[in-house]
Amino acid sequence: MSAPGASGVSGASAGLAAYRPELRPRVLLSDPLLDGAATVHLIKDTGSGNSFKVGAKEHFLIARMDGERSLAEIGEEYAGEYGRRLGDAHWQQILTMLGTKGLLAGTPAPKVPVVADEPRTLLRGTLPLVADADATTARLHRVFGFLLTPWAMVPLLVLIVAMEAAVASRTGELLIAVRELFTNPVLLTGTAILLWLSTALHELAHGVVARHYGGQVAEIGLRWRLPVVIMYCTVDNYLYLGRRRHRIATAVAGAVMNLLFLLPFCGLWLLAPLDDATHEALAALLLLGSVQAFAMLVPLPPLDGYRIASQLAGATGLAASAGGYLRLALRRSPEASAYPRRARIAYPAYALGTVLVLAAVVAAVVAGAHHLLTT
Description:
By secondary structure, this protein is α+β, with helices and mostly antiparallel strands. The protein has helices at 13-18, 56-62, 71-82, 88-100, 133-144, 150-169, 171-181, 185-212, 244-271, 276-295, 304-313, 318-330, 334-337, 341-373; strands spanning 27-29, 33-35, 38-45, 51-55, 124-128, 217-225, 228-235. α8 (185-212) packs parallel to α10 and α9 runs antiparallel to α10. The longest helix has 33 residues, at 341-373.
């Protein structure tokens, strides 16, 4: 049955009760997310790219609009959950909102807004590299997707742990190698190219892992803010992937790829008969590459670590929400007690975790600088 338009929702109660609304297949609904003191769900129309937030009660109704259940049946479920029945005015309001946004089957699709491309200049800009990023990622997944199976990934992760243990045990030697690298322009250039390649693979890994869990990659390209030039990979429906662990895996995939990239160089460094200059260059690459990978896991926006922290907390706008809550809590404001229990745990935990990570980073930098100055 086609949905009534914004002006045709005001039929008799019996007509509304029999109506079976259906969301368009392109409409995505997120899990419940903390947003300040509220719990919200994100809704995205992948056709137009529009997204917005709704509360838990609105989501309860919208998620049941599958074309099978009538408004009467949805209303009964709602009354059983929330202890009240919705009148015509409430149904008209929500159906009008969904119809206006083109989210219901049978309503006119909204016009896709024309977004002007960012002007490209010598100093800044973006450049898509492939015509169909999703198809490109699908091909990469067909070739490399087997690495995401447990029998392949577990041994690789064991090798990564062993490599990082070796790096940690010989950090002093590697720091000196980094210092020496900056005195050799040729090896420094080669190392910089390898590290840039690692960042490119980092971005592609996000796309391949997202694809593995049903994600869609909207764009792969280059972004430059001179002197920095990096690749980017945009996963269009990252926040709507089916399970939280899938979203976390997608976020952490980049750092894991950075470390996987280092494995063959670690093997050469440990086992191959190399001249001193090449051996030191590989040592420097291992340390710089490891720092590059773990830096992406710092839980500050827009880094991957922030995405992981947001998923662990089940929150959107985590940094701003945590800051707002802590300001209220430190002032002993009664408003802080109005936050749900999950928020009162998640926001301080995020703040404390971030402080500890940053303290560890500062301590590592100070220790590294002291070692270089005293050797």
